[in-house]
Write a structure and sequence with these properties.
CATH class of the largest domain: Alpha Beta
CATH topology of the largest domain: TIM Barrel
Radius of gyration: 22 Å
Low-confidence stretches: none
Number of strands: 20
Length: 357
């Protein structure tokens, strides 16, 4: 038993989640290009190879370098191209097929002037999510951007990349499906006007609830490898599909208010929360199944306060530990920087001591 907050991973559930998504992609006839931003682990990345994955997606140049060093040779950096990072693009593209995202002709031109090697550019499409990308309705702007890529010396069109992140605001499986299908319907215009270019689509809620991806030819979900309590609330998964949990020491108990102090705060979990009924939850104890009244009520830097039902409170003792599902596993994993398994292995994370930087 670790005396500090510890992130555990169940590799059987990880493998099951990967197998299910890979099978779904195969049945739908789309290429599976999973996003590795959630796990950021070479050890977990290797499991994907067992299911025929050869092309991956990452969220940063540093992450691309990390997985390049583990033999991945087809990498999409799903973040808008950074002109200042041209030396990094040049270095990675010496030995790998690298793609990234672009939103404007200005970036295409400035980047092209700095490149030594070939770089694939996805045009990032905004399906009315509002984060970044070219609005899907602006076809003339998309055509002009495509012409700029085709006219460059070092870039080529990799297709279109669309992240329907507004599914994370959904509260049910039916709502996720509605939002996802509306986003995919908007992408039909791209398939009609640019039939030869791939369309990469995929957030975990959409990819978890849909079986048909319409005009999309590639999917790139990431969080599904672990899932978390947010995904349960959204309707993407069931609790028994969550592959990670935090184990935190019980430090003190407060009988006057049925609360427990744990060592486990914002620097371990993040500050993400979800609305559950009439309260905000910053983490869901696995004892949650015994009581709807038990949840992580608040987090400060190192402290966590669990509000308990009387029954659950009576079972929690100082000097023991409690297991808690994170609200957002991507951020929790990034903060914890390593994983423990049931059999005592310690798995790497890109930002951890084992993974290097």
């Amino acid at each position: 038993m670790q005396p500090f907050p510890t992130l555990y991973v169940d590799l059987d559930i990880v493998r099951s989640n990967i197998a299910r998504m890979a099978s779904k992609a195969e049945k739908a006839g789309v290429e599976f290009r999973p996003h590795f931003k959630t796990h950021q682990s070479k050890a977990i990345g290797k499991i994907f190879r067992e299911y025929g994955v050869s092309g991956i997606t990452v969220s940063s140049i540093k992450m691309a370098e990390y997985f390049l060093n583990d033999g991945w040779g087809d990498i999409t950096i799903a973040f808008p191209a950074n002109v200042l990072a041209h030396d990094y693009y040049n270095n990675i593209s010496k030995t790998a097929s690298v793609k990234t995202l672009v939103i404007s002709e200005e970036v295409v031109q400035k980047l092209d002037n700095k490149l030594d090697n070939e770089l694939g550019l996805y045009i990032e499409i905004d399906p009315d999510y509002g984060r970044s990308g070219v609005p899907v309705s602006e076809l003339e702007r998309i055509k002009s951007l495509l012409n700029a890529i085709e006219g460059s010396d070092h870039c080529y069109p990799a297709g279109f990349y669309c992240h329907a992140g507004h599914t994370y605001k959904a509260c049910s499986k039916d709502e996720v499906e509605k939002i996802s299908r509306e986003a995919l319907q908007k992408l039909e215009a791209l398939r009609e006007h640019f039939p030869d270019l791939p369309i990469c689509f995929g957030d975990t809620p959409s990819c978890s609830v849909l079986d048909d991806f319409g005009p999309a030819t590639q999917i790139s979900p990431g969080n599904f490898v672990f899932y978390d309590w947010m995904q349960v609330q959204i309707g993407s998964c069931s609790p028994n599909e969550i592959a990670v949990y935090m184990q935190c020491p019980v430090i003190e108990t407060f009988s006057d208010r049925n609360q427990v102090l744990i060592h486990g705060g914002a620097v371990h979990f993040s500050k993400d929360s979800v609305q559950v009924d009439d309260y905000l939850s910053y983490g869901e104890p696995m004892l949650k199944y015994l009581s709807e009244e038990t949840y992580v009520k608040s987090l400060s830097q190192e402290h966590g306060i669990i509000q308990c039902s009387p029954d659950v409170f009576s079972k929690l003792k100082v000097g023991e530990t409690i297991q808690i599902f994170p609200i957002h596993s991507c951020l929790t994993a990034d903060l914890m920087r390593e994983y423990y398994t049931k059999d005592g292995q310690v798995l790497d994370h890109m930002n951890g001591k084992m993974g290097g930087s």
